[in-house]
Design brief:
Length: 355
């Protein structure tokens, strides 16, 4: 009810003002007396005629695609006739007089019906004006809305053009920066491979890993696993230079080398194992097992939990892997991770389509 009052508040204000104006004119100036009930019922009939003519007759028949002018004429005549009859019958009922047949209508009755006919036309003229004003406002608002949408579209296109230009600039910078980085790493390697062979080897492995990561970023969405297996071995060699007691068993089937999966999956798991796991116990080494069996590709990592480290970063890395798997494989991929006793284990399975 509250929403209805808010939506139609101007209608209510307009009708109250109009009714007060007519009441003052009729009662005080013209000195014509009528009961409040008569006023209320006749205004209900008049207001009903007003909205029927505006919303139903004109609203339905004056459609922009196919206006029906003949229907408007017929319906308007019908409205006037019915309004006059209903108003006359209502007035008779209020005066507690019997209904008079057409043959027995007096001069007074004909005068009343004539004035009622004019009053119906009067309200229909108001209704027609209301309809066209309402249509004009609606069309104006629609035009303003379309102009606003057009301006927003132009601004959006300009924004897209600007973002594209920025992306092109960023791409050019990305092409320049890696070349500078790799040239610098090559220089460091050449300068240290005789005096500091371990440091030089670390630079060489790091250069290979970074080059692979950049190739994956600009490469296809899925790639054969063989290249990533080599990079895992490079990563393990690099880690052993910094941490000689690092112990990880890296086990994979030869047939997994040709398996195509999303890149940086195996490498990310290995990096997190090295960063967060306890891999210094020869009798309890970390394990990376990669298999392809019955169309199911799997990666299993298992390592002792390093209780002295904060593993929050590892959980973030696993969540990123989870999102990538979901994006590419949807329900075909699963990742299970968590502590198992003194070990932390991650199992990734991907159901691949057989060739």
């Amino acid at each position: 009810m509250k929403n209805w009052l808010i939506n139609y508040r101007w209608h209510i204000i307009a009708w109250v003002t109009f009714i007060l104006y007519e009441y003052i004119l009729v009662s005080l100036i013209l000195k014509i007396d009528a009961s409040i009930l008569s006023y209320c019922i006749h205004y209900i009939i008049n207001i009903t005629l007003f909205y029927i003519h505006a919303e139903l007759v004109l609203g339905k028949c004056l459609k922009p695609q196919k206006p029906a002018y003949l229907s408007i004429i017929i319906l308007t005549i019908s409205e006037v006739f019915l309004y006059t009859v209903i108003a006359y019958i209502t007035d008779r009922a209020l005066s507690k007089s019997a209904v008079v047949f057409l043959s027995k209508l007096t001069v007074t009755d004909w005068k009343f019906m004539s004035s009622t006919l004019w009053r119906g036309i009067y309200f229909m003229l108001f209704s027609t004006a209301y309809y066209f004003i309402k249509s004009y406002i609606h069309q104006k608002n629609r035009t303003t809305e379309l102009e606003k949408e057009a301006i927003e579209e132009v601004l959006k296109q300009k924004q897209i053009t600007l973002e594209l230009a920025n992306a092109k600039n960023a791409y050019l910078k990305a092409q320049i920066n890696p070349h500078f980085l790799f040239n610098t790493l090559t220089y460091i390697y050449n300068s240290t491979h005789k005096s500091e062979p371990n440091a030089a080897e670390a630079v060489r492995y790091l250069s290979k890993l970074m080059r692979y990561a950049l190739e994956c970023e600009h490469g296809p969405e899925i790639m054969p696993l063989e290249a990533e297996i080599r990079q895992v071995e490079n990563l393990l060699q690099l880690c052993r230079i910094k941490q000689p007691d690092l112990v990880i068993d890296f086990i994979y089937d030869q047939k997994t080398k040709s398996t195509e999966v999303i890149p940086l999956l195996l490498l990310s798991l290995t990096e997190n194992m090295v960063k967060h796991g306890n891999l210094s116990q020869p009798e309890d080494p970390g394990k990376i097992i990669v298999k392809l069996q019955d169309g199911i590709f799997s990666i299993l990592t298992n390592n002792l939990i390093n209780t002295g480290l904060n593993d929050t970063g590892f959980h973030t890395g696993l969540e990123n892997i989870r999102h990538r798997l979901l994006h590419t494989y949807e329900e075909k991929a699963k990742i299970i991770s968590g502590p198992k006793g003194k070990y932390f284990e991650v199992l990734i399975t991907i159901r691949l389509t057989e060739a």
